[in-house]
Each structure stands twice: as structure tokens, then as C-alpha cells.
């Protein structure tokens, strides 16, 4: 990644690594390499290379990023220093661009095949290649597994590999109606949609937490990068943001978002969304 480019041989090697190690392991290793950089120029270069490699199978990689890699960094206080800028901003850009790319691939697959599915062989069954029990005890998620097994059951997968397990809070019953009113026509069983719902609830918990740090700045950067990619690309992502998160977000980022940015954070065709966004614009507009 430090070279800023990858040739055909490197793409073939990355494709083999993705097939053998699985999307979660592949994503974790890519993020680890990116976070080794400290200069802004090197980070931009590494993120661009990672995005190119993630196109090998964008949807499973995006799900791994949203469900495991980012939550692991946010929930582990010992890793939060890795989210200090410019690393945090670079990681936020990677996550947003990867997610937008996954939605684009998903929509293209639906138009071609009538349904969304992973392009890689055998991944429709959500099979994961994981480290054997003998090596999983080391707790090193980024080590290349020496012996690999295919586990067809997701709960067994996480039980056999606790080093790769992340416990995310589920959104509360009081938040569910607000989400349902905002995106009633969305299938929550889709892995990408489900990952975003849980991640945004984690973001909401981070913003309302009494402590402020790099993890808080990362959430702001994630929303900021999502707004920057434009309305068409950001809508599939921001539609999962709970209503209660908007006031907390604007309180933590005074002057970062313009009124035009805030209007992109919800579907203005819905009366409840218009009411929440109108209040947010009036109360938190920069002076």
C-alpha cells in the first residue's frame, strides 16, 4: 500500500488472500496497514489502494468493516489512539467509500439478476474461513491462518474464534419505531443494512457518552465523509441514522455541518424527518 499502486500480480494475490482468509480477516489486515501511516499523503494513498482491492468483493468487505473492524476500534479504549487524526479521518473515508461501493454493487446485481448477492464463489452462504481453535487462542486476528476450516454456522464461527468477536449493542425498542418510520421499505435482514443499523446505534452511544475523544471525532468524520459523497450515494447510508443521534452529533461538532449538510441526513419527504431536521437547523446553525 505504501507504493500507492498495485499490479495484476498483486491483485491476484489479494484475491487469493480474500478467498482463503475471508472478508473479515482481509479487511482487518488492510486497515492495520493503513493505520501504520502517519502522514496525510501516505494515508490518502493507502486508502485509495485499499478501496481498489476491496472491489474484489465489496459487499462482504463492507459488512466486515462496519460490523467488526470499526466497532473493535471504538469499543477498545486501548485502540482509540489509532483514531486520532489524520488516521481517523482516513479510516472514516475508507469505511464510507467502501459502504457506498457495496450499495452500488448491490444495486447493479439487483438490476442484472433480480437479487443482491456476493460476486465471489460460495459467499452467498455466508461461510467464513477462520483460524483453527489451536491458533485462535493467540488473539491475533491479523495472523495468516495455518489451518483453515469452513464453518457454516455463524454462532459457531464466533464461538470458535473469540478474538474476532465484537459485541455490539442492539438498538432499543424506543428507537425501532423511529427507524421504521424513516425506512419502512428497507429489508433489515440484508447483512449490509443490518450492519449499518447496529453501527449507527453504536455511534449514537458514543456521541451521548460522557467522555469525548478520538472515538467521538471519528463518528463526526464518518458523517462528514458520508455527506461529502453526495446525496445519491449518502442516502442509503444516512437513512439508518436514528433521529436521536442528530442533536448529539451537532452538539459535538459545532460549525462542522452547514444547514445544507443537515438536510441530507434524512428523507425530507417524511413529516417526522422534516420536523427533526428543521429543529436541528434552527438550534445548531453556525453563528
Residue share in β-strands: under 5%
| Mean pLDDT across every amino acid position | 77
Form type: globular
Low-confidence stretches: 121-139, 143-177
Number of strands: 2
Structural class: mainly alpha
Percent of residues in helices comes to 55-70%
**Ends apart, CA distance between termini:** 42 Å
If strands are numbered along the chain, what order do they take across the biggest sheet? 1-2
Which short descriptors sum up this protein?
single chain; 287 residues; mainly alpha; 14 helices; 3% strand; globular
Protein model, in words:
The chain has 287 residues and is mainly α. It has helices at residues 8-21, 23-34, 40-54, 58-75, 87-113, 133-136, 154-160, 176-182, 191-207, 214-228, 231-238, 245-252, 259-263, 271-284; strands at residues 128-131, 148-151. Strands 1-2 form a two-stranded antiparallel sheet. Helix 4 runs parallel beside helix 9 (191-207), helix 9 packs across helix 12 (245-252) and helix 12 packs parallel to helix 14. The longest helix is centred in the middle third of the chain and has 27 residues, at 87-113. 37% of the residues are buried.
